[in-house]
């Protein structure tokens, strides 16, 4: 006749009363140690959420006259002498239209690329920048007469082509206009408490 199983020393947990399952060393309810009799460890206090400081990305266009691009076109307009100073245009909208007479509509920003002296090769609405989900801008032509070039002497950007822009990228349009894309980061803002309104990413 087989021997009867030995009676467990702690059929129930002396702390929470949970039934001990076979030879479990710990109580499944409160983690009481049956072998040593050590009381369960106190639960860890809840930790506050870790808030990451918010930083806003800023995009700018640095617009200037480029003699090398002008010479590559072999055209009639006279290059301005002296060249006009660099014009910096911050980007503040998700859709940005570049040209000689760009229109600023709802949610659209117009950037005038014709600063004195005016670039005669610039169309009224020459190019467009569209802000993408990852925070970068996408460049494409709006059917301009002279198109967009990524390098002097290179073929024009196709009407159906689009180009992702990164910090330091350049493109050329009109008779002598060079546009350089720059981005920087605002200083970190104090983190907002959980549930409060955060600023919208640009």
UniProtKB/TrEMBL annotation:
Alphabetical UniProt keywords: Phosphoprotein
UniProt keyword Transport present: no
Phosphoprotein recorded as keyword: yes
Chain spans, region Disordered: 182-202
Domain FHA: 96-151
Pfam family, one: FHA
PROSITE patterns associated with the record: FHA_DOMAIN
Protein's name according to its UniProt entry: FHA domain-containing protein
Species whose genome carries this gene: Parafrankia irregularis
């Amino acid at each position: 006749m087989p021997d009867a199983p030995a009676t467990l020393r702690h059929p129930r947990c002396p702390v929470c009363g949970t039934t001990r399952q076979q030879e479990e060393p710990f109580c499944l309810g409160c983690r009481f140690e049956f072998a040593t009799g050590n009381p369960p460890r106190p639960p860890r206090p809840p930790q506050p959420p870790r808030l990451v400081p918010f930083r806003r990305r800023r995009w700018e266009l640095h617009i200037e006259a480029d003699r090398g691009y002008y010479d590559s076109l072999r055209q009639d307009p006279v290059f301005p002498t002296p060249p006009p100073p660099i014009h910096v245009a911050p980007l503040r909208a998700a859709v940005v239209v570049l040209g000689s007479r760009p229109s600023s509509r709802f949610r659209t920003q117009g950037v005038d690329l014709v600063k004195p002296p005016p670039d005669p090769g610039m169309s009224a609405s020459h190019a467009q920048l569209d802000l993408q989900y990852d925070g970068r801008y996408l460049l494409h032509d709006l059917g301009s007469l002279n198109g967009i070039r990524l390098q002097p002497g290179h073929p024009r950007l196709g009407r159906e082509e689009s180009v992702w822009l990164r910090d330091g990228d350049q493109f050329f349009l009109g008779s002598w206009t060079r546009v350089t894309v720059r981005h920087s980061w605002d200083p970190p803002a104090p983190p907002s408490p959980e549930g409060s309104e955060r600023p919208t990413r640009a």
